[in-house]
Amino acid sequence: MKIAIEAQRIFRINKHGMDFVALETIRELQKNDLENEYYILVAPGKDHCLKESLNFHILEIKCPSYPLWEQVALPMAIRKIKPDILHCTSNTAPLFCPVALVLTLHDIIFLEKRAHNNKSIYQNMGWYYRRFVVPRILKKCKQIITVSQFECNRIRETLHLPTEQIIAIHNGFSQRFHPMKDVYNITKKYIPSKEYLFFLGNTDPKKNTSRTLKAYSMYVKQSVNPLPLLIADLKEEVINQILKQEDIEEIKPMLYSPGYITHSDLPAIYNGARTFLYTSLRESFGIPLLEAMACGTPVITSNTSAIPEIAGDRAILVNPTDVNAIATQLLKLEKDKLYRKQQIEFGLERVKLFSWQYSAEKLLKVYQSILKK
Fold first, then answer.
1. CA–CA separation, 44 vs 41, rounded Å?
2. Distance between CA 11 and CA 8 in Å, rounded?
3. CA distance 151 to 130
4. Does residue 116 surpass a pLDDT of 70?
5. Is 224 exposed, middle or buried (0-12, 13-18, 19+ CB in 10 A)?
6. pLDDT-based confidence at residue 122 (cuts at 50, 70, 90)
């Protein structure tokens, strides 16, 4: 087979969830599939995190914007390559595709009603772009892949898709995430304290940042020796606005917000954290859950969407809208040593169910089934 994989943003420095899913899956295919020929289509970037090999070719396509890259430049490249399959990895695809199309549709959050607009102009534009493109390409897809059974059922029911058109393939996590000692040389770049709590937040309403900070403020008031909170991927001005809105400005000295934390430093960050807060309202999978568990860090997470499917029934699952429940679990992990030990052990065992090798093997079977048809 000749397979083209769209991985437009994997060369950018500040990568996010979908970029890592595409990159890690491609790496596994490259290690294990020496039979088929692959063309990886990317936009130029400074992080050349993937190298060519005998049957893996990288084609950089220059274009000034994401929509033009996907709707004009990508189809032009496909016509030249003439692959058997084009796999688009990040929710959207060309409206006019000259070959068999596989789409990874991570979620349909963009089709759900929003409580309020995202403060990020970039993310808002992406939201409208997906709302326009996705309904128009679904019928053209030979196979749709999503990342959890929860999301699979939700997409199928919401968009009225045939049962066989969509399947779930779980994500994995990088083997760089494992228990480590003496990580302070790395973590001190982001927070001076050797012990801290960790929260991945951004401006997306689903990340539940306001309630999480409110819960943290309750923990600070009740703890004998409260730990500071490291917040990744959130600008200080946004945090200040939330603190004022929630009337919890007194916790500002306890917060550290360095912005984007490089992926190479994340294993150390998880290892240094006493507890990881993953209190989203809505997730289609939750790779950070696995990363933290694999590092032996207890996780407080939500009982909503796909999160219980990934975290497991023995994880700490709370109602993400209940700030008291979040604060209570923070205090319990701090005071109850046996409870903390049990959560660490459960997490380390749970992550054994997930790997990028397994994800890549399932994906290759999808490609093979399309060619047989």
1. 10
2. 8
3. 16
4. no
5. exposed
6. low
